[in-house]
Amino acid sequence: MRIARVAAWFLAGIICLAGTAGQALAHAAAAKAAEKVVQNPENEACLGCHGTEGFASPAADGKMRQLHVTPDKFGKSVHGKRACVECHKDITEIPHKPGVAHKVSCVQCHEALWENAQKENKTQENARLGVVVEQINKYMHSIHARPNREDQSRTNATCYNCHEAHYVYPKGSDARTEWRLSIPNACGKCHAKERKDYAISVHGKSVLGDGNPYAAICSDCHTTHDVEDPTADSTRVIITRNCGNCHADSLKSYIETYHGQVNTLGYGYTAKCFDCHGSHTIQRVADPMSKVHPNKRLQTCQQCHKEATNGFVTFQPHGNTQDFGRYPHIWLASKFMIALLAGTFAFFWTHSALWFYREYKERQERKKRQHVRAEALPRGQGKYYRRFPLVWRVAHLIFALSLMILTLTGMSVFYANTAWAPVVMNALGGPRAAGLIHRTSAVIFAAVFLLHVIYFVVRLGPRWKTFQWFGSNSLVPRWQDLWDIIGMFKWFFNLGPRPVFDRWTYWEKFDYWAPFWGVTIIGFSGVMLWFPEQTASVLPGWVFNVATIFHGEEALLAALFLFTVHFFNNHFRPDKFPLDVVMFTGAVPVEEFRHEHRVEYERLVATGEIDKYLVEAPSQPMTTGSKILGFALIGFGLILLILVLIGVFGAVRAAV
Question: Count of domains in the chain?
Fold first, then answer.
C-alpha cells in the first residue's frame, strides 16, 4: 500500500509538470492509476501539484488562476502544521473529482476549531484561536463583511484578500514583518486612490520606500478586523485614538483641548488629527505641502471656523504644561492655578478639620453653648431673627442651581476620560446640548451676579461717602477679621475661648468675595472660548490655551470649595449638622443668632434695634419645604463632589 501511494504521488508530480494544456488528460490517467489509493490526501500529495512553480488552472472567466503554494513559506505559517483538507473540505481525493467547488470558509473553520476546543476544555492551550474567533466576530460586523454594492453575491473583502490564503505568519516573525509592509498594496487593490495618496505621504514613503516596519500602515489607523465607514462618528473617534498608538504625547496634549475632550466622550464632530494634519497625504509640519504648515494653517482652521483670523494660527493644539521653553504662557498659567488650588485647600481643609475636631470634643465633654436668658430678650423666648430678606434667598437659590448645573455640564467635559462622563453626556443629549445648557446656566449665573452688583451700587451709591466701609455692617474685610482668624486657631488648639463674631464672620466674607474672583476668571475665559473668532481677531491664539486652563481649574476650585468647605461651614459642622435652613427660611432662632453673632446681637439689644428684626417662627410648611429643598441641593452637591473627586484622582493617577 505504501509503495502504491508513493507511486501515485510521483505520477501526480509528473502530470503537473506536463503543462496546463494536457492537465485534463493527465488527471484522468492519474485518477485511474490512483483509484481508491489517495483518499483524504496528506499535504505532500497536494504539494505534488500545488508545490510546482507556475501551477495554474483555467478560472470561470477563462483566465489562468494561480494555484501554486510555496512549501517552505507555507510551512512557516500558522497553518503549516495543518492538513490542506482541513480547510479544503471538498477535496477528498487525488485527482479531484470534476465539478468540485473548491470553496474554503475561514470563518467556519476557525469557529469549528474553537467550538471543539471549548468542548474539550482546551481553551487555554488554544488561546490564540480564541483571539482569532473574536477578530472574526469583529469582521462580521465590519464594512468589509457587507455585500458589495456592485455585486451583492460577494462581500466587500474577505479574509484572504488581506491575509493571503496560505501565508499567515505568527507575530514577531520576520515573515510577518515582511507581510505587514505589503498591507498597503493589498488594500490598494480595492482602494487605489487611497493607495496612491498614501504612497506620497510621510507614512507611505517610510513603509513603501524605506521598508520601515514601525511606520503606520492602513490597519494601524483604520483598525484591522472591525474596519468601518471612515465618515462615521465612531470611526473618526477610533482613528483618532489609533493615532495615539504612535504619537502618544501628541494625543495626550490633544485630549486636553475641547476638541479632544469631545472625542474622548465618543463624539466625532470636533476636529480630529486627520482633519488638521490630513489623512492619506499627511506630511511633516515643516513640509510646505502639510496642512498645518504655517502658510496653510489658517486655511485648515477655516475648514471648521469659517470666520477664523490670523489669531488662530498661534493656537497650540499640542501645547503642554511641562515645557516652559516652548509654551511659557501655558506653563505659567498652569503653575499659578496649581498654587492657587493648593494654597486655598491647604488652609481651608485644615481649618475645617480643626474646627470639626474642636466642636466635636466640646460636645463629647458635654459643654453646652450659652443660651439667651429670657429676661435678655425684648420679646421673650421662641422668637426668630430675620437674617436674610427674600431677594437674597431667591438669588442664593438661583445661584446654587445654576452653579450645580454648570458643574455637571462642565466637569463632564473636563473629566471626559472618566467612566461617568459619557453616561452623563448621553443623558444630557450630547456635547452640543450640554454646551447649550452650560452657556444658558452661565448667563443666568452672571445675570444674578451683575444684578447683585447693580443693587449694591444703587443702594450705596448715594451714601458712599458716609457709609462705614469697614464698619460692622460692611462685607469689606477689616483687621478684626484677622484677629478673629487668629482667635479661632487658638480655640482650635484649646489655647483660648471661641471668638465672638459681628454681623459677618470672616468665612462668610470669603464666601461673598470669592465669586468676584471666580466669576471674573471663569466668566472672561468662558466668553473667550464661547466666541473664538471674535477673540482671535484681537488676541493671539495662545490665549485659548491659557483660557482653557483658567476656566477648567478655577471651576474645579469653585466646585471643590463649595461642596466641601462651604457645605461644612454652613451644614456639616457639629453645631449645624445635618442642615441649616436659614438661607431658605431667612430666619434663625434668636438663641442660635446670639451664639453665632454675639457682637451684633448685643449691639442691637443695647440700641433697642433688635425689635425690628424679630419675627415669628417660620410656618411648618415653610420649614418642611426648606428642609426638603436643602437636603435635595446638598444631595445633588455631594453627588457632584463624588464625580469630581473621581476625575481628580484619575487625573492624578494618570500624571503619576
Answer: 2
Angle at 168 between CA 166 and CA 170, to 5 degrees: 145
Give the separation between CA 335 and CA 147, rounded to whole angstroms: 56
| Integer Cα distance of 543 and 541 in angstroms | 5
* Residue 302: inside a domain: no
Beta-strand runs (E) in 12-85: 56-58, 64-66
Q: Which domain holds residue 398?
A: 328-655
End-of-domain residue from the set 117, 150, 183:
150
Least confident residue range of 216-225, 319-328, 454-463 = 454-463
277, part of any domain: no
Residue 292 lies in a domain: no
Quote helix, strand, coil % in the chain, to nearest 5.
60, 5, 35
618 close to 587: Cβ distance less than 8 angstroms: yes
H helices, E strands: number in the chain: 31, 5
Percent of the chain at pLDDT exceeding 90 = 73
Rounded to a whole number, what is the distance in angstroms from the first to the last CA of the chain? 71
* Domain endpoint, select from 132, 150, 168: 150
Which residues, other chains included, contact 367 with Cβ-Cβ below 8 Å and sequence gap of 6+? none
The pLDDT of residue 31 is above 80: no
Handedness of CA 575, 578, 580, 583 (dihedral sign): positive
pLDDT digits (tens, 9 = 90+) for 429-474: 999 999 999 999 999 999 999 999 999 899 888 888 889 999 999 9
Residue 237 lies in a domain: no
Please name the residue ranges forming H helices in 102-191.
106-119, 127-140, 159-163, 174-181, 183-188
The order of strands in the sheet holding 384-386 is 587-589, 384-386, 614-615
Going along 31-85, which residue ranges are E strands?
56-58, 64-66
What is the domain-level CATH number for residue 501? 1.20.950.20
Mean pLDDT of 61-88: 88
